[in-house]
Amino acid sequence: MVEMRVFGLTIDPQTKTPIVILKETDGEVVLPIWVGAMEAMAVSLVLNNERLPRPLTHDLLLMSLNALKAELLNVEITELKDGVYYALLVLRGPEGRVRVDCRPSDAIALALRAGASILVNPDVLRRSAEAQEKAGQRLREEAPPVQAADAATDMMRKVSARKEVDLLNGLLSRDGVLPAENNPDEEERYRDLLRSLDPISRRKM
């Protein structure tokens, strides 16, 4: 399993769906997971060190585990099937270790609160990367044909596009978030990068 951490939260400008960005703890592998609004809020509260006067659902679950003398050891994102991610909570209680099925978005929110590790199956990372590559290939195939006379112009356009994607990757690696969507120029570059991500997995968390 590959240990990853929450690198940041961002928004898909096309669907306005929140995305949790996971990044390899000791590497550069990035895994984007589209989540629901409530789960994104639960993650955001921890990332921003916000404390509420009353416990929310994820806080309540951890409090219940503590009351039962159990603890969350880690969470595992185990599978990617038909665009849906699957996860497990690894708990330790009086009877030993148990694994509980859950959504990755809930697993991540719980892991942040408990200070537990987030582990990802290498096969999930491979499948996600393959899906992103296929999505990028579809975009390239759907692009209109280029006239021979415009070959030089097209080459320059591709070089410029590559630089834009590299810039976005640099911003994500440095800041943990991509450009804010209220900047029209940066939003367009952001949108192009998101189009290369796996579209099937969106809104299925």
From TrEMBL:
InterPro entries: BFN_sf, Bi_nuclease_dom. Residues 131-150 are annotated as: Disordered. It comes from the Bacteria. Residues 1-132 form the BFN domain. Residues 131-143 have a biased composition (Basic and acidic residues). Pfam families: BFN_dom. It comes from Desulfovibrio porci. This is Bifunctional nuclease family protein. PANTHER family: VON HIPPEL-LINDAU DISEASE TUMOR SUPPRESSOR, VON HIPPEL-LINDAU PROTEIN. GO terms for molecular function: nuclease activity.
